[in-house]
Amino acid sequence: MQRKYKMNKKFKATLQLLGVLILTAAFCVLGYMNANNIKLGLDLNGGVSITYQTVDENPTAEQMSDTVYKLQMKAQSYSDEAQVYKEGDNRINIDIPGATDANAILEELGEPGTLEFADENGNVLLTGDDVKTASAGMTNQNNNKEYVIELVFNEAGAKKFEEATKNNVGKRIYIIYNNEVISSPNVKEAISGGQASISPIESYDEANKIASTIRIGALPVKLTELRSNVIGATLGVEAIASSLKAAAIGIALVILFMLLVYRLPGLASSIALVLYVGLEMVLLQAFEVTLTLPGIAGVILSIGMAVDANVIIFTRIKEELGQGNSVEKAIKAGFEKALSAILDGNITTLIAAAVLYLRGSGTVKSFASTLAIGIVVSLITALFVTRTILNAFLAMGAENPALYGVKKDTKIIDFIKFRKLAYSVSLVVIIAGFAMLFMNKKNTGYIFNYDLDFKGGSSTTITFDKDLSMEEVDQQVIPLFREATGGDASAQAAKVAGTNEVIIKTRTMSTEERAKLYNSIQEKFSISEDKIVTENISGAVSKEMKTDAVWALTIAIFCMLIYIWVRFRDIKFASSSVLALAHDVLVTVTFYAAFRWAVGSNFIACILTIVGYSINATIVVFDRIRENIQKGEVKKKGLEFAVNEAISNTLTRSINTSITTFITVFCLFLFGVSSIRDFSMPLMVGIVSGAWSSVCIAGPLWYDFVNMSKKRKEKLTAEKSKK
Known about the structure:
Layout: H1 2-34, E1 39-40, H2 42-45, E2 47-54, H3 61-75, E3 83-87, E4 91-97, H4 102-109, E5 115-118, E6 124-127, E7 131-141, E8 144-153, H5 155-167, E9 174-177, E10 180-183, E11 195-201, H6 204-217, E12 223-231, H7 236-286, E13 290-291, H8 293-322, H9 327-359, H10 363-395, H11 419-444, E14 449-450, H12 452-455, E15 457-463, H13 470-484, E16 492-495, E17 501-506, H14 511-525, E18 532-537, H15 543-568, H16 571-595, E19 598-599, H17 601-630, H18 633-637, H19 639-671, H20 674-722
Parallel strand pairs: 1-13, 14-19
Antiparallel strand pairs: 2-4, 2-12, 3-4, 5-6, 5-9, 7-8, 8-11, 9-10, 15-17, 15-18, 16-17
């Protein structure tokens, strides 16, 4: 009977393993087949470029800035990765990634026009200038879903709208766009506060369409289409090929590392990782995520977290085996004990991703969406797929503990003893960073080496006599720009599809530099000067977008702090984790300042990646400290021992996770094109810094905070007793 039971169990396990392998193969094939359908950003795949010109020849700088921001919000309804920037004094350029039909994009965006709010007699009550923003939403009225349009007015608009609604109760107010009524809501009561909603709307799509029209009509200036083009990728096909090559090599090396270090569990995690990659590809396409360099950063971070979850589990299994437990009990206990650290780390990062997506814009949204998808998939693969595979291996007869690795007694390292040295090292690096920022400001006028995305520059359109390939542009044209601009390496090139035009963006060129450039181009390619046009352009990352990014990051950190405070029931854990996070960001900033790495839109994604990595690494250590407190280790052996033991027990995990994540990023650096290498360097710094802070900074900081709190209580008690 027992033999029959074992046979049935073995057969069932074989079927389960076979099912996982078939599922893995299916998702990989499906992911590969759908790879071409994944939306790629301008940097990877090109898109449509539309240039609008103001009807008024002399708009103010404030009007242009407001218009750029509102068009950015409008364009992002089509793509999160849309870029909007000023060209010259009265033109605005919109780049929409992944698109090939300029006319379709123009139709999607709508033609900018005039927006008015009028009463039933045709009297204009408000204009588009009074509207701050408009968005589609949904409410539940008596358990009935209702679609609405949410309106927010500026200060002047709020007063006008309150007066308008007060005078038109029981009547309709007509919202007119380019002399066409797009909505006519009935006024039920006077509305104050600068916010209003229009309901009911038939569908969310209809609400979104009207809200979008209101936003485009609320532009501070009237625009007219000047030109539209289909442009090629700024990084080229080579970037995609090299990135895929780097990713494949990186994942292969990670799998090899896991197999060597963790043996049979490493095989299980490798299968789960392959499944993760396939499922990630499918979901990126299903959710229509636009993939750019920041998006790739989100994928890298989620891969790191997927591997990290497995490393935490396997470390726990090794510990259980080291205590003499059977393999079956060790696997069960390993997953149970690892669960809290995995969930806390991933949920914390997921909260951050959600806030960043809802509050951020542009590259921040791209990063947040890929990260969120990756976290959910990594949780599924680590907690369910890896467990299923391990249990299947066990049922099939893999009961030898040697196959899983047995952790030897952990040597307790006195990290607390050396904490002041660790603090000093970090402080010296950070102070050096601030010193470099000051020097940069003094020498160049800027604390960072801002690239085109932040600072703007010059956009030069050249019409050649023949169609040049991107390779020819890189080899023959770009060197002329670098020569003319004194070796400026930040030139970005893109082709206009169906023409011989090439658009090249550089830092702002002086009159002398333009003259030198024009002469060299005419001499080399025998073209006339009228075929070369240069315009100054603003940064693609507007002031408002920077503000959005800062606010998104601030709110995300605050939400993470609150979550850690609630979960660990101690504000000192939350404070220590945020300080460790700040440490990693400042160290990375130090390297940006010292090595003059270019700071553009990808800088934001890089910092966000480091924040996510840092908080996850710290939580793993804090989870062990919390466990030691619950076991009474503090009372038995003292606070110092409990912290040292927690850090020592997670040291292998910290090192191995850092190695696997570093491998992936290093492959991008090694095999990627220059832009990707520039992006990979700070990520590697952040990974090393995150490992250092989680081991040497976070735990000791918590230890010092606890002691400070204890001394404060003792002081208060002593003062009370004296009274």
